[in-house]
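FW: tagging you since you asked about this chain on Friday. Here's the raw sequence from the shared folder, copied in full. Didn't touch anything.
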Amino acid sequence: MRHPTRRSVALALLGFLVVLGLSQPPAVARAQAPTAAGTQAPAAAAAVYNVRDYGAKGDGSTNDTPAIQKAVDAANGAGGGTVRFPSPGTYKSKNTIHMKSNVTLQVDTGAAIQGSSADTYDPPESNPYDQYQDYGHSHFHNAMIYGDRLTNIGFVGGGVIDGQGNLITGNPSSGEADKIISLTRCNGLRIGDGLTLRRGGHFAALINGCTNVTSDHLNIDTASDRDGWNIISTTNVTVTNANIKANDDALVFKSDYALGAKLPNGHGRVSDSFLSAVCCNALMFGSETCGDFTDYQFERIRIEGSNKSGLGMVSMDGAKISDVHYRDITMTNVHSPIMQKIGTRKRCGNNPGVGSISDITYDNITATGSSPSFSPTLWGESSPNHISGVTFTNVNITVPGGNGTMSTAVPTNDPTNYNPNSIGTRPAYGWYLHNADNVSFTDSSVRFAADDGRPAVIANSGSSVKFTRFTAQRGSASPYDMGFQTVSGYCVADSHNTSGGSLRISTSSSGQDCGTAPTRYEAENATYSAGSTVDSDHAGYSGTGFVNTDNTTGAYVEWAVDAAAAGTKTVALAYANGTTSDRPMDITVNGQVVASGVSFPPTADWTTWRTVSLAVPLTAGANTLRATAITAVGCPNLDYLDVQA
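HL: got it, structure written out here
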């Protein structure tokens, strides 16, 4: 039988005292007795360090920063742990909390860390590179919570960290803070889990030079001051279920020179989130854009309000922005729904050149604009710095309209200003493209709320600009619907106005090139399951009608497709789904399933037609391609099948 050691007896006694409420020794709570062999026992879960155990009062007036700092230091010194702010409690923090590695701050539901007006926060540090970015981006120490070169840190819980209106929105004096959370060069950050950041001054959160950032269910309310969350020079970021309401920019990705180098950015994911911005941008790249950005995906995001851009992207300081993809996003009350701009501010060290924007996709985007309205815009610099490789699929924008006719000449531009108003009134009420190549619109539309005398679209100076199944509303006094000015290789195919008529096209020093048109197979000429009908009661279809199948699993439409040679071909199935739920189908070629459960999501109504494209293998000669419903609601209405040459 193993006899207890003196330490184990002491621990037992202390534990008994804790139960009686006579002693609360926080360090002992995580101590581990040695095993019989003298080795350390297996590591337990990270210990919890209650700030009250270190002297915090939580009464809303006592300065609790010294106690908080003791808890943070103890957790860090022990190898890591959670510093807990229990509820109820309002923990006034009059000094900067210095965050440490392997520490998580947990603010319980009903608890709050509050900022102070005592002007006793850390002063801003000097920065030899502050000429390259705004003051708030250049200085990090002057914050409620600050950390540098940390690993494995977190800010979680259902409580609140609130600046209380005491944080500065402009350039702070010594002792004043302008941020809630300020982190540099960190690896491994977790922030959210119900946490709310409120009234952050210039920034609720600013991180720079970090990597491996995860955020879920983070709430930010800075609608009364400035920015929500600035993610700067940071890689490997995942943000889910964010709710950010800001006055300035809500969620913004930037890259500046505050740390004395052009740092990488990329591999970002943002999904299932809500954003709003009173004065500025909701979801933004820039304006600080020194280092390059690549590999970002934004999905299932709702934006309500932005006086600048809903989805903004600018390269002002030499950055290359590429491989960015937006999908399933709705925007309301946005003054500039979509804007891309390459500028020449060059506010970055090491003599930056002119940046670039390429390989950007927008899928399933709906936006309604607000006055004053800035037409959705792609604005590149002169060759070779054109915007290139941008695709829009099912992008539907309604702008306020209400303008009269005007000159269709290129508007004025300030190349050092990133704001939507840096470009003069666009001569198109809808899309204005300037110095843009390889741009395509498919199954997309632009409309106005009030009659407008400008064309729907103008493309000026570019190449390979294509519109397929594009719908544009016609102004009663507009000279034409679409204009191409010095564009080589424009194409407008299978497109019309909102009344179903042909679009009026004006060209100047431009050449048409639609390539080889796909082979179209109308659904009404295909074979289909029993109970299906060919109908024509929903406008906008191709040919003489569409196929309406039974609402049953196994309903299908099958096309006979010819291929000159064996190989993989891209096919597009045109459909309408006026319900509120997906109608997925299996796609088979020659009896073999080549794509299972392909999504055919709602299209708002039965007169809105979209396409779903996929690659399928075809043999030389005759083939059969069948789309089969896999749920009891049957197929969507099917219009045609396009097979690319």
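FW: The mean pLDDT is 92.
HL: agreed, and Residues 6-20 form the longest helix (15 residues).
FW: great, closing this out.
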